[in-house]
Amino acid sequence: MSNSDLFAAEGAADKHGYVIRAVDVKKVYRMGDSETHALRGATLDIHRGEYMSIMGPSGSGKSTFFNMVGGLDKPTSGKVYMDQVDIAQLDPYELAWLRCRKVGYIFQSFNLIQVMSCLENVTLPMSFAGMDDEEAREKALGILERVGLKDRALHKPAEMSGGQQQRVAIARALANTPDILLADEPTGNLDLRTGEEIINLFSQLRKELGVTIITATHDLKMLKASDRIVWIEDGLITRVTTADALDIQVQEIH
Amino acid sequence: MREKKQRMAERDTGGSAGVATVAPQSSIFNQQSSIGSQVRLPFRTAFRISVQGIRIRLGRSLVTVSGVVLGIAFLMSNLTGQLIKNGVAAKREARQQATLMAAMVRAEIGDVRDKNLAVLVCGTLRPYETELLSTIVAAKPAQLRGLGLTQEGVTPATPSTLGAGAGVLLVLGDAPSGAFALEELTQGMTQKVVLEAEAARTYAGKAALEAEASAVRRELFFGAQHEQQKARMAKEAQQAHARTLWIVVISLLVTVIGVSNALLMSVTERFREIGTMKCLGALSSFIRLLFLIESSLIGAAGSLMGVVAGAILPLLAYGFTYSFVTVLGSLPYGWLMLAGAGSAVVGTLLAVLAAIYPATIASRMLPASALRSTV
């Protein structure tokens, strides 16, 4: 259990507690006779209000870990607690509730519903949460204003640039004021400048709303903005570093 | 529920050996760690998304709709054709029967003109009997006395005065028994001839034997041969009906498969959209609802168009073959409406049926599929 000793105990005395705890998470995918060990015992605690980045080459189990932490997948063994609730114990209705209110998802390719306007995209999770239409509209306009897109509320996603679409996606993720924002390579499809805008937006949101941000990313600017960086290799968490420590490495490479 | 989950969480944490780092449970934390159960199925939202989905993918939706249109138009055109044929054929058959009966009457008394005739109607008149009566009236008899019917050109009579001076007594109608005695009815007839439309009809009063004794001759309009022919024709019609039914069922099955196939494609195309909605908190039943609504809208639109097309096309076809006056005059409009409504309902239900499998596939998609970045 060297992993848990090294990484899980970090900040144990944090007065805000942990928003997500992954304990010895293993995931095995079975395809016929062959077994793929995507995760081989990952242990990690994520603090409330933290900005954490997950790094790793493709095939490292990074996406699997990301899905577990976000309540999108259940581990084969080990436990994932979100707010101290073991997500493996939840039935589909409770999982849907969790995804609706606790977690906001942001995707690399934005995944806005193309047939709906920006406003409708943002109000959709609210209507899933049972908010009445007028209230949802007001709140959505407020959030869109927060991400700087209030004047484009009635546009369709196809009429907007990638950066704008991603900001709508962030607004949608914030719809039900989640505790956690889960972003899968949020700057992956964006150019450097718009990517930077998105990163700045993340930092502001974290400061203002105290939301926990977890990203899977390869973007160095994104890594630099985060509190902690988790490295996953071959199904194991091999390193947890701070952004400062990474900075030195970046300098060395260049 | 909330307590149960927490207890589970605590027990599980404690149970994992070697994990010393149980999170400190601050009071703030506990308040936030309740998990509710998602139950909302916003029907209006689902309806809006479905309508928008159809509008955006209008081209493909129209192809799907046209599949339903074809199937339902085929069903409806068969029904309409059947109704028209029945109407026209019934009219033609009535005329044939009436001609036959009129010939019988002539065989008994010669030309009807300036003769006296008597008619007794038991129950209600059949179409060909009505036709016969109008033929007789048109042939200008001296007097046509009637009992049990009021019609222009027919003089009302009582049972005792009905027969006086008449050459023949016609007994028509569909009731199995007459309320009067034949003897009384044929009073005053020179030749007591009764032309009977119903072989099995019985009469009141004294028994038939006595009536025979009193020299009443009872003849039938239609002999046994005629009945056989009718039965054969009915059997042939039934066989043709079964064949048509089979083809209609096959065509509807093809429609169902077509709609199902189109929806399956739509599902695989929209995996990311479906996954995203699930990430946003949509229940599986919401996704299923989405596809069921879309399909029922497609089905309803296609059915309505199919019903209209399937009613108009046979009307035109038969209208040109016979004549529009005959076709439109003999069409039972009530039945036509019923056939239309039935076809529309069938089309919509079949479209929903076709959506069940694709909708189930869609509802089982994992939320994580939204993360797949490949297009």
Tags for this entry?
heterodimer, A: 254 residues, alpha/beta, Rossmann fold, 6-stranded mixed sheet, 4-stranded antiparallel sheet, 10 strands, 38% helix, globular, disordered N terminus, B: 375 residues, 2 domains, 6-stranded parallel sheet, two-stranded parallel ribbon, 12 helices, 8 strands, 8% strand, rod-shaped
Walk me through this protein's architecture:
The complex is a heterodimer of chains A (254) and B (375). Chain A has one domain (17-247): Rossmann fold (3-Layer(aba) Sandwich). Chain A contains 9 helices and 10 strands. Chain A is an alpha/beta fold. Chain B folds into 2 domains: 43-89 and 228-372, no CATH class; 91-223, 3-Layer(aba) Sandwich (Rossmann fold), CATH 3.40.50.720. In chain B, helix 3 crosses helix 4, helix 4 packs across helix 11 (324-330) and helix 8 runs parallel beside helix 12 (333-363). In chain B, 38% of the residues are buried. The interface between A and B is large, with 61 and 55 residues.
Silhouette of chain A? globular
- The chain-level mean pLDDT of chain B equals 81
Q: Give the strand order of the largest sheet of chain A, numbering strands 1, 2, ... along the chain.
A: 6-7-8-3-9-10
Order of helices and strands of chain A: HEEEHEEHEHHHEHEHEEH
Largest sheet of chain A: 6 strands, mixed
Domain unit count of chain A: 1
Based on DSSP secondary structure assignment, what is the total number of beta strands of chain A? 10
For the biggest β-sheet of chain B, the strand order reads 3-2-1-4-6-8
Query: Most extensive chain contact?
Result: A-B, 61 and 55 residues
Q: Hey, roughly how much beta strand do the residues of chain A contain?
A: 25-35%
Strand portion of chain B, in percent?
A: 5-15%
